[in-house]
Write a structure and sequence with these properties.
The protein is an alpha/beta fold. The radius of gyration is 20 Å and the shape is globular. The relative contact order is 0.20.
């Protein structure tokens, strides 16, 4: 595999294992023996959230007290709105109902509040898993690497995706700030979009890390795609760094500087970073309903820590959670809060962007 696509084999658990004994002690009152837990995935089978859930579920079964059975239930519709709303109306705070949240869920909560009934900020985080994104183009555009990105400025680009207010905002804001001329085709999921790219119907695309490594990297090897850059990840100070899984690919900030001759700044870049928090830093999470009793929460969080430390799980970690830090328990709360809290000036920029560029009114 090309060195740009090498996955970091290790990951960091951002939680205090010193607190694990106390967590286990509090969780001793909890026993899920003979119980069936419903893990709601508000997306169709086969997508990233579904893969994430089904990979983690057996390990939660193993490490939750009483070794319950976990049933993954897919409730697709509305870019996760249907499943999230159903969870809000049906789930009880008894530890037997858990929701898998994705970047689309976060963005729908932020941008489509009139249709979204679940308050993510009141949910109880168990595990949060960041997930990066890689942008690639057709070799027919004459670009061989990020250093050539200026060649795209005067070309007609076509991009497909689900819609302008969902996870694709990672790309729409990126392409706008780079000053590229893009035609958007909406209503297409990531898998079909990749196939359309392969057929030549689209000439610019992106995938999250698992999708890129599993599928798009094959297009690169076949000479049908050119990886340009990874969006990057934010450090604790809020500064953009290269994606740890694609250290040979520049971040968006580096590509912006190549294109414009200066570092990104201003409200547009702050809005882009806000979208990155939603789409990358809070990409996947496992949440319990608001009001779940502390012993049950502690049992789930202890199980998450044990899962991430399980040697058997570590063998599969590169395929599920990649090389990104994993946030367990309260360490996930600031990330989710930051992803769902947008400053007024950034909100105004996003509203103007969506209205003027995509005819969407928030």
């Amino acid at each position: 595999m090309h060195k740009s696509f090498r996955v970091a084999a290790c990951f960091t658990i951002v939680a205090s294992f010193a607190g694990l004994p106390a967590m286990e002690a509090a969780a001793q009152k909890v026993d899920f023996a003979g119980k069936r837990i419903e893990m709601v995935v508000p997306f169709p089978p086969g997508g990233g959230s579904d893969v994430y859930s089904r990979a983690l579920a057996p390990f939660f079964e193993k490490h939750l007290p009483g070794n319950p059975t976990i049933i993954v239930r897919n409730v697709p519709g509305g870019g996760s709105i249907t499943g999230a709303n159903q969870f809000q109306s049906r789930a009880r705070p008894d530890g037997l109902h858990v929701l898998v949240c994705s970047s689309s869920t976060v963005m729908n909560f932020v941008f489509r509040k009139s249709k979204f009934q679940l308050d993510l900020n009141k949910m109880v985080p168990i595990l949060l898993s960041p997930q990066g994104s890689v942008v690639y183009v057709s070799p027919a555009l004459g670009v061989t690497a990020a250093k050539d990105i200026a060649k795209l400025k005067d070309q007609a680009l076509t991009f497909g995706g689900g819609g302008p207010t969902g996870a694709e905002m990672r790309m729409t804001t990126t392409l706008d700030l780079l000053g590229l001329n893009v035609k958007y085709v909406w209503g297409i999921a990531r898998g079909p979009t990749r196939l359309a790219f392969e057929r030549g119907e689209f000439n610019i695309n992106y995938d999250t890390t698992p999708g890129f490594l599993k599928n798009a990297s094959k297009l690169v090897k076949a000479g049908k795609a050119v990886p340009l850059f990874a969006l990057g990840v934010l450090d604790e100070a809020g500064n953009l760094q290269r994606d740890p899984n694609f250290k040979d690919l520049p971040s968006f900030a580096e590509v912006y500087e190549i294109m414009h001759g200066k570092k990104p700044s201003g409200p547009g870049y702050e809005a882009w970073k806000a979208i990155l928090k939603m789409g990358v830093m809070a990409n996947k999470s496992i949440l319990l309903p608001a009001g779940t009793p502390k012993p049950i929460v502690d049992a789930w969080r202890a199980a998450a820590q044990k899962t991430l430390a399980d040697p058997e799980f570590e063998e599969k970690a590169a395929k599920v959670i990649e090389g990104y830090p994993q946030f367990v328990g309260d360490s996930a709360s600031p990330i989710m809060s930051s992803a769902t809290t947008i400053p007024p000036d950034v909100w105004e920029w996003i509203k103007t962007f969506l209205k003027t560029k995509h005819d969407v009114t928030l």
